Automatic annotation (TrEMBL):
Entry annotated with the keyword Oxidoreductase: yes
Main EC class the enzyme belongs to: oxidoreductase
Protein EC: 1.3.1.2
Name recorded for this polypeptide: dihydropyrimidine dehydrogenase (NADP(+))
Organism classification: Eukaryota, Viridiplantae, Streptophyta, Embryophyta, Tracheophyta
Pathway: Amino-acid biosynthesis; beta-alanine biosynthesis
Organism for this UniProt entry: Adiantum capillus-veneris
NCBIfam families: PRK08318.1
């Protein structure tokens, strides 16, 4: 392991301090920036990323959920080489969190042996472990891995005092940043928690104001996809002082109905409830949401130290490259870890480096956001194609109009207009 470098610098003056944490100023940059360097592979392109003053050896982050549920598994993640770990979401009162079993259901591809898992639903709640236990384990992790990035995920009711208390107590463990769960799609909406806040921009604005007035470490707001325009809450979170946004959390879903029992899955005593959908089937939706946020951030927050963490169906290094090409600084993996294990990060890193080598990219920043400029409106696509035809005077593949479709050649004609 490379040598440890840990600096905490006061950006608004000349004082340098290694322990003191103070609330963020009203300026965009946090009052303190923690530069933390960890080991990384020396061969191949540089995978390290610096985001909101935090330095990660690679962009792969354990997403909040079962893979970050206790000290043992988070330690394993660090040992295997993940760039950062986000612990499972905690709240002050875990006694109200009661999970059930079974709480997962899978969607398989229709062919293949063994059947490929392409979709995953969970009805799992946030951490049901005592808050003090989670605090102790996060503190222990930071003591044992001071050069690694540990992010606490927190969620509270609509109560300013509760938010201030949880922030203060969590920061005392030494965590490097906070991710705010504004996006859990199921469980406790009646307490105005999770997506109940993320779907209400007025409520979100107020709560983000409370959080950023108290927090002294970078804050990422985790966005829900269960909303018409995800750029609206993302914009508000950044305007209210959050250093970053994470997207997406799971998609509200019903996995299916067992046609033998006529009961929904996952079945708990014959009953179920809608849950969060993840795994590779959600990736196209996640990419669209990340693209929208990436374009908004590029247009409205250019030059500011704000970040985007992409989430949704990442299981390969190429999947990660897609999110980075749409502006993501980091890429979170949760369900992928549950399916492939903690050691999967090595494969992710090698595949991402292979992509970078193929395009002669030396660093993540060389290609981050490079594909955003290629998204436009359908009207503009029509204009561009018309101009290209006129300029090149070339014949397009495919059909010029709907009247050219024929019944006998329908499949082949369809193929002439597919781009990949």
């Amino acid at each position: 392991m490379a040598g440890l470098e840990l600096n905490v610098q006061h950006l608004c003056g000349t004082k340098i301090c290694s322990e003191l944490r103070v609330p963020k100023s009203s300026a965009r940059c946090p009052r303190f920036v923690r530069t933390i360097r960890a080991s990384q592979a020396s061969d191949g392109p540089d995978l390290s990323v610096s985001v909101n003053g935090l330095h990660l050896p690679n962009p792969f982050v354990i997403g909040s959920g079962p893979p970050g549920t206790n000290y043992t598994v988070m330690k394993r993640a660090f040992d295997e080489g993940w760039g950062a770990v986000i612990a499972k979401t905690v709240s002050l009162d875990s006694s109200k969190v009661i999970n059930v079993t079974p709480r997962y259901a899978r969607l398989h591809a229709s062919n293949g042996t063994p059947k490929e898992v392409i979709g995953w639903e969970n009805i799992e709640l946030i951490s049901d472990r005592p808050f003090e236990t989670m605090l102790a384990e996060m503190r222990q992790l930071k003591q044992e891995y001071p050069d690694r990035i540990l992010i606490a995920s927190i969620m509270e009711e609509y109560n300013k005092d509760a938010w201030e208390e949880i922030i203060e107590r969590v920061e005392e463990t030494g965590v490097d940043a906070l991710e705010i769960n504004f996006s859990c799609p199921h469980g406790m909406p009646e307490r105005r928690m999770g997506a109940a806040v993320g779907q209400d921009c007025q409520l979100l604005q107020e709560v983000c104001g409370w959080i950023n007035a108290k927090a002294s470490v970078p804050v990422w707001a985790k966005m829900t996809p269960n909303i018409t325009d995800i750029t609206q809450p993302a914009r508000i979170a950044l305007q209210e002082g959050c250093e970053g946004v994470s997207a997406i959390n799971t998609i509200m879903s019903v996995m299916g109905i067992n046609l033998d029992t006529l009961r929904p899955e996952p079945s708990v005593e014959g009953y179920s409830t809608p849950g969060g959908y993840s795994s590779k089937a959600v990736r196209p939706i996640a990419l669209a949401k990340v693209m929208a946020i990436g374009q908004m951030m590029k247009k409205e927050f250019s030059g500011q130290d704000v970040s985007l963490s992409g989430i949704g169906g990442v299981e390969t290094g190429n999947h990660a490259a897609e999110f980075i090409l749409l502006g993501a600084h980091t890429v979170q993996v949760c369900t992928g870890v549950m399916l492939h294990g903690y050691g999967h990060v090595k494969k992710l890193c090698s595949e991402l480096q292979a992509f970078m080598e193929r395009h002669n990219f030396e660093s993540i920043e060389d290609f981050r956001g490079a594909s955003l400029e290629y998204f436009t409106t359908h009207t503009d696509l029509v204009r561009r194609q018309r101009e290209a035809i006129q300029k090149k005077k070339a014949v397009r593949l495919g059909l010029a109009s709907d009247k050219e479709w024929t019944g006998d050649g329908f499949v082949k004609q369809t193929e002439t207009m597919v781009s990949n």
